[in-house]
Automatic annotation (TrEMBL), chains A, B:
Stated name of the protein: Helix-turn-helix transcriptional regulator
Family annotation (PROSITE patterns): HTH_HXLR (PS51118)
Coiled coil (UniProt feature): none
Keyword check for Cell inner membrane: no
Keywords of this entry: DNA-binding, Transcription, Transcription regulation
Keyword match Transcription regulation: yes
Domain annotation HTH hxlR-type: ranges: 11-109
DNA sequence: TATTCCGGTTACCAATAGGTAACCACAAAA
DNA sequence: TTTTGTGGTTACCTATTGGTAACCGGAATA
């Protein structure tokens, strides 16, 4: 899910896209925001994601230093995820994407719903 | 290559990711920048992309209003692509991703190459 | 005793993305 | 006559992504 050729590019922008340039990671980071959140919550909040994919994405985000994983040795297990400094620094970028979309998106939605 | 479920979300951020959240589109937009550029140049400049994928991505970017396509009725054909206002407005976001990566990326590159 | 909770993992299968190579038009140049 | 240049398209095949459902531990609860 990470593109190795992109990650090994000598262009820093291409490397960034190789790391976070897929559809799930920005969504996950955006949902996390500044809070600490559990695996099950992410699974419940993010539409259409499967546990398998969520697990994989979280693992990669952790490997790339965007988030931190805290596993509490309890029964049943409890695991919390939290954005790292690097991950938090990415939030304003997501915010600007949101604003960009709101400004330029051509609305294809019906004006009203019955 | 566009995720329809994302594009039909009621969350503007999710829709944005559904539109530009794949690995090729940010790369293409970044390469285009403010200039007007021909298909063959994009094909030559962007590493590892195939003409088929480049064609598809350009078509989607045009449909989503990020770029404009100018086909000159010449033989041999000449086609130029240029970012629209919406596409140009996306450039600063890509720039901030670049800066974010430079600041936080953990270098796994060797310090020197023999 | 069976079930629930939680955060996964695994095996298996289906859908999608993406690559390759051939082909196209048509005019100009060799 | 053949080749070149340009921006694709197409058929075909493979690689990757992603989904589903079952399973796990181990204590608490019913």
């Amino acid at each position: 899910m990470r593109d190795e050729r992109f990650c090994n590019s000598n262009c820093p922008f291409t490397r960034a896209i190789g790391t976070i340039g897929n559809k799930w990671k920005p969504i996950i980071i955006n949902v996390m925001g500044t809070r600490s959140i559990r695996f099950g919550q992410l699974d419940a909040i993010i539409p259409h994601i499967s546990r398998k994919v969520l697990t994989e994405q979280l693992k990669e985000l952790e490997e790339d230093g965007l988030l931190e994983r805290y596993a509490y040795k309890e029964i049943p297990p409890r695991v919390e995820y939290r954005l790292s400094e690097k991950g938090l620094a990415f939030l304003p970028i997501l915010e600007s994407i949101k604003e960009w979309n709101l400004k330029y998106e051509v609305s294809t939605m019906p004006a009203m719903e019955a």
